[in-house]
Specification:
By secondary structure, this protein is mainly alpha-helical. The chain has 2 domains: 2-66, no CATH class; 74-128, no CATH class. Helices cover 49% and strands 3% of the residues. The protein has helices at 2-6, 13-19, 30-46, 51-60, 74-87, 91-95, 114-123; strands spanning 103-104, 127-128. Strands 1-2 form a two-stranded parallel ribbon. Residues 65-69 have low confidence and may be disordered.
Length: 139
């Protein structure tokens, strides 16, 4: 996915595979996704005469900043519309949530920058964790 990002291609495996005309039949199955990654890598290396040229091309490209992860797709919005309405809270309710000492992992797609989320959560007492462990209260 790093190669795709450096080349300005989609970063999500499903979107990237579809952009390369690869069939996606069992997305999120680890074995299928691993095979799909291998096929994607093969497609990328087919576009360049040698692996070394692909690596050189990737190393020469600045990392794209297309906000791909900050923009939820229409599918994601539709799938989560009911959840969004059921769990939507006001700014006042958000600021009054008791997170003092609670471990939080920030995952998913957001319409605002992660650093802004992290700053807010820490301001109201949350402890930001880098991964899921026994010390996480809100993954």
């Amino acid at each position: 996915m790093l190669f795709a990002d450096k080349l300005g291609m989609p970063k999500k495996i499903k979107d990237l595979a579809e952009s390369l005309d690869l069939e996606v039949t069992n997305h999120h199955d680890p074995e299928f996704d691993a095979k799909l990654c291998a096929l994607i890598f093969g497609e990328l290396t087919d576009k360049y005469p040698s692996y070394q040229e692909l690596i050189r091309k990737i190393d020469d490209q600045p990392k794209t900043n297309n906000n791909y992860f900050n923009q939820p797709s229409e599918d994601v919005l539709e799938e989560n519309e009911e959840h969004l309405s059921n769990y939507q809270i006001t700014q006042n309710e958000l600021e009054n949530i008791d997170l003092i000492g609670k471990g939080i992992v920030i995952t998913g797609n957001f319409s605002i920058e992660r650093e802004e989320i992290k700053t807010f959560l820490m301001k109201i007492g949350g402890q930001i964790k880098s991964g899921i462990t026994g010390k996480v209260d809100f993954p």
